[in-house]
Amino acid sequence: MRIAAFVLAVILAPAVLAGEPERFFFEHVSPEGSETRRFEARIDRPGDGANGFAVMLIGGGSVTDMDWTVPGSYEYEGKTVEVTIDGGTTRDAATIGDALVDAGFVVMRWSSIHEGDELARENPALAMGIPFGYSVELTRAARDAFGERAPEAREHLILIGHSLGAPRATAVADEGVVGLVFLAGAYTSRTLTSPRELCAGGLGKWAEFDDDDDGVLAGDELRMRSFGCIVTFSEDAIQDFDFDGDGKYRDWELAARERCSGSAADSDAGELRPGTPWPSDVIRNRHLPTLAIFGGLDQMSVHGPWLEKYAREHNLTELRVEYRPGLGHQLSPVEGDLIGPIDAGVARRVVEWCVSVAHGPEPIRTPAAWATPIQIHSSP
């Protein structure tokens, strides 16, 4: 098994090496309240160059281990199921967390899989799921545990959430939180409709133009056609709605176009879940600096254009939405159903953005090391 590690070449003055990570367990009751469970966590602290800010990583799905581990393969009903492109294990939270520590942040990674889950020891993908509301409570417990051990986490905390980790992050983004990062964030715009349903509806009225029936409008399919108010799919028209800039209209882009035009209704629910606000409302009400990154091959990206529209309507200059063509839901390369480790450029962007939050609005000097391309290394 191999681990993808994120390496920044240090070409500035040597710094004092960071100490050993602080490993510990925090406790929280089970969803039924019948028992107290223990959850593993670790805090990594930088050596010289600490910037006084902290970052907590919040995984997606129902539950994740502290590294967001995806095994290269697993056994199911006597068959081997391949998961990753090269057969190696990906640990994207470790990749991002190590780079943030190098940049001066105190970083906490934690597992939402309780210590007593036997199946998860063999494979995190087999861990017992938990209700969303409980996962929010658990995220708050993790944040409290971080604050008890690191003063930076009480005063200058950035939350990074992947997928369902994004609404979990905004649900606990109260006093002391100074920034948010959504990685393929779920429910980040005001709709309870699944991305799959939104995208299916978006492609419907355009299906007649999809000559090769591949679910994507590209090449000649985008040219010399008339539809609605667009006389032809000119290069300008393509760019207007080609949100990730790959020269193609994908299902999520077509769905986003419909939604942003006002033909698809937003939810009239005041909250995502009882006691859990919509992420977009948290950004607006607290004016939190927020970076949202979506992958061009991911239907979850349908939230991105709506967030951009929301930001324009409410003058939310602190909200930035970005797309990365050719990447899937893990913000990684995709080959069929197989995934890779998180894209190096995405990981670098997250670190650079967090540094900009830590330094405030004043221009900052980019460390010379960051001009060096990030390298993905494999190690045992």
Characterise the protein shown here.
- By secondary structure, this protein is of the alpha/beta class.
- It contains eleven helices and 18 strands.
- The protein has helices at residues 92-102, 118-122, 132-149, 151-155, 165-171, 195-204, 235-241, 251-260, 279-286, 303-313, 344-359, and strands at 3-7, 22-29, 36-44, 54-58, 69-70, 73-76, 79-82, 90-91, 106-110, 157-162, 177-183, 217-218, 248-249, 290-295, 319-324, 334-335, 338-339, 375-379.
- Strands 2-3-9-4-10-11-14-15 form an eight-stranded mixed beta sheet, with helices on both faces. The protein has a two-stranded antiparallel sheet with strand order 1-18. A two-stranded antiparallel sheet has the order 5-8.
- Strand 10, helix 5 (165-171) and strand 11 (177-183) form a beta-alpha-beta unit.
- It starts with a strand and ends with a strand.
- Residues 1-17, 226-238 and 362-380 have low confidence and may be disordered.
Features:
disordered N terminus; disordered C terminus; 11 helices; single chain; alpha/beta; 380 residues; two-stranded antiparallel ribbon; eight-stranded mixed sheet; 28% helix; globular
Layout of SSEs?
Elements (H helix, E strand, L loop, with lengths): L2 E5 L14 E8 L6 E9 L9 E5 L10 E2 L2 E4 L2 E4 L7 E2 H11 L3 E5 L7 H5 L9 H18 L1 H5 L1 E6 L2 H7 L5 E7 L11 H10 L12 E2 L16 H7 L6 E2 L1 H10 L18 H8 L3 E6 L7 H11 L5 E6 L9 E2 L2 E2 L4 H16 L15 E5 L1
